[in-house]
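User: My collaborator and I are trying to settle a disagreement about how two of our proteins should look. Neither of us wants to argue from intuition anymore, so we agreed to look at predicted structures for both before our next call. Could you fold the first one, then the second, and keep them clearly separated?

Assistant: That sounds like a sensible way to settle it. I'll keep them separate. The first protein:
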Amino acid sequence: MQERNTLQKRIVHETLIRMCNHPTADEVVAEVQSTYPTISRATVYRILNKLADSGEALRIRINNGADHFDHQTFPHYHVHCSSCGKVADVTMPVKELGSMLSDTSGYKILGYSLQFDGLCPECQKNEEIEAGA
């Protein structure tokens, strides 16, 4: 039974890497089940949570939305499209906000999440088309 779980973990992790688009758990489930229909939704959710807890994947908590997952685990920021819900990487240097905050607040910062919100290029185009119509 342990080997089966290891195989399922490998399948879910490789799917997350292959998708490389910050998918939600439901999107990973759909992708996994398109090739491996016997892998259950609960199994994919459990494995994604374990990958995030172990640091093998990054959980991106979206304000008022479903969590997304990232196969890239190095420190970086994300932007969330307020219209379609896509998540993308933000290419900018990661500052040590935690140490800056602890200097002023007295808190020992254990982690933080920074989310930018905006409109993705596709939604911007759709907005322009709708405005022109």
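The second protein, kept apart from the first:
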Amino acid sequence: MAKKSMLARDVKRDKMIEKYADRRAELKAAGDLEGLAMLPKNSSPSRQKNRCAETGRPRGYMRQFGLSRIAFREHASRGEIPGVTKSSW
């Protein structure tokens, strides 16, 4: 499980990205780079981190499932992910 402070920081970032999305789009369309620089750093969507929906783990994230590799393996082993089966040959 990720640290609570890191998860809280990500939630705060997500809210800030949402809050400044319209203003950021307007400034980009106008080509106002100075105006963009005045916005908070965390309002940039590129600072958003993909995290496992279950554990909050930032590494080994599988975008298709929204889970980390570890959580994915546990769910797949239990047969909880439709269409995913263990390989055998």
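Some points you might bring to the call about the second protein. The chain has a mean pLDDT of 94. The domain at 50-82 is CATH 4.10.830.10 (30s Ribosomal Protein S14; Chain N).
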